[in-house]
C-alpha cells in the first residue's frame, strides 16, 4: 500500500512540475512561433538601424531552430539580411552559401529564392570598378530566384528579384560612356515589373525600394524632368501616414529640383522632407511605446497565469499530502487493531493455560501439564516443525486445551529451543545441567552417566563458557531462564 501511495504521489508531483517548469521542452508549433517572432523582431530592429539587437535576435532564432531545416534556413535568411544592412558582405556571403545548400537539399523554393536574391545583391554591391564587376553572376542568381518565386507564388520574392535584375542592368552601364541604350531600356523594364508587383502586394517597403532603383535609373539616363514627374505622381498616390516613403521622395526631389534650377521648389520640398522625417520618428516612437505596452500586458498576463498555476500546484500538493496522511493513518489504525486482536488472543491463551495448569499441579503425571513439561524438556532436541506438530497433537487429544493455547505453547517452546541452539549446548551438556539442578555432585553425575569425574568437570567448564556463567548456581539459574530445566 505504501509503495503504491508513494508512486501515486511521485507521478502527480512530476506531472505538476512538468506543467509549471520554465525549462520544459516546447512543442514544434510553439518552437516555430518563437522563431518566427524573433525573426519579425529582428526585421523591426533592422528598420530602426539597430543592427546589434537585430543580430542577437536572429542568432537566438537560429539556436531555437535546432535541427529543423526549414526554421534553420529562415533564421539564416534573417542573419544574412542583418549582415548585408551592416555592410558585412563576406559574413553574409558565407551564411548565404550555407543556407542555399540546406534549402536546395530540402526543396524550399520560396526560401531559396530569397537567398539567391541576397547573393545577387551581394554581387551587385561588388561593382566597385570595371575589373571587379560580378553583374553577370548576380543576374544568374536573380533570374533563378525569380523562377523559383513564381513557382512558389511568392510575390515579395518576385518583386525583389525584378528590382535586383534591374539594378544589375543599371550596373552594367555604370562604366559606359555613352550608356548602352538597350541595357538601359532593359533595366527600366525590370524596374517597372518590380514596381507593379510592389503595388499588387501593397507593400510600402517594396515601393520605397522601387523609388531608390528608379531614381538611379533616371539619373543614369540624365532624365531629370521625367524623374520629377514620376516622383510627383508617386507622391500624390501615397497615404499621408507613409512618412518614410514621402521623406525618401522628398530627399530625391530636392536634388532633382536643384539640378533643374527650381530652387524655391527645392527649399519647399526640403521643409516637407524635414516635416515628414520628424513625423516618421514620432510614428516609430509611438509604435515602440505601443509595442512595449503590449509586451508589458502580455508579461503581466503570463505572470498572473504563472501565479495561478503555482497556487493550483500548491493546492494539489496539499490535497495529495492530506490524502496520503489519511491513507497512512487508516493503515496504521488497521495494523493496531490487528495487533490488539493478536495480543488479546495470546492473553486469552495464557489465561486458559494458567487455569488448566493450576488444576494439574497437584498430580501432573499423565496430565496435560505433564505432557507439556515433557515436551519442554525435549524441545531443545526438536525442530520448530516438530514442536508445532506435537503441540497440535496435544490440542487434538485434550478437550481442556484449544489450538490457540497449543500455538502459544509452541511459540514459547520454539523461542526457548532457538535460544538454547544459539548458545550451542550439546545434549550431553543439557543432561549434565539438569542433573546438576537435581542437586547431584560431579561424582554422582559421573556415576549415573558412567563417565569419569574429570570428564564431568570438563563438560561443566565448557557449559560455563557457553552460558557466560562462573559456577553451578549461576549455571542452574541461567538454565531456568532459558527453559532448559
Helices and strands in order:
Layout: H1 2-20, H2 28-47, H3 51-65, H4 69-85, H5 89-106, H6 109-125, H7 135-152, H8 155-172, H9 181-201, H10 204-220, H11 224-237, H12 243-259, H13 263-360, H14 368-378, H15 384-397, H16 403-423, H17 427-437, H18 442-449, H19 453-467, H20 472-482
Report what the structure shows:
The chain has 485 residues and is an all-alpha fold. It has three domains: 27-283, Serine Threonine Protein Phosphatase 5, Tetratricopeptide repeat (Alpha Horseshoe); 361-423, no CATH class; 425-485, Orthogonal Bundle (Arc Repressor Mutant, subunit A). Helix content is 82%, strand content 0%. The chain contains 20 helices and no strands. It has helices at 2-20, 28-47, 51-65, 69-85, 89-106, 109-125, 135-152, 155-172, 181-201, 204-220, 224-237, 243-259, 263-360, 368-378, 384-397, 403-423, 427-437, 442-449, 453-467, 472-482. Helix 6 packs parallel to helix 8 (155-172) and helix 18 (442-449) packs across helix 19. The longest helix has 98 residues, at 263-360. The radius of gyration is 52 Å and the shape is rod-shaped.
- Derived from helix and strand composition plus strand pairing, the structural class reads mainly alpha
Low-pLDDT runs: 1-26, 358-362
H/E series:
HHHHHHHHHHHHHHHHHHHH
First and last CA, distance: 46 Å
Assembly status: single chain
What is the mean pLDDT?
82
CATH topology of the largest domain: Serine Threonine Protein Phosphatase 5, Tetratricopeptide repeat
State the helix count.
20
Query: Care to count the β-strands?
Result: 0
- Helicity level: over 70%
Question: So what's the overall shape?
Answer: rod-shaped
Please name the CATH architecture of the largest domain: Alpha Horseshoe
Instruction: Report the β-strand fraction as a percent range.
Output: under 5%
CATH superfamily of the largest domain: Tetratricopeptide repeat domain
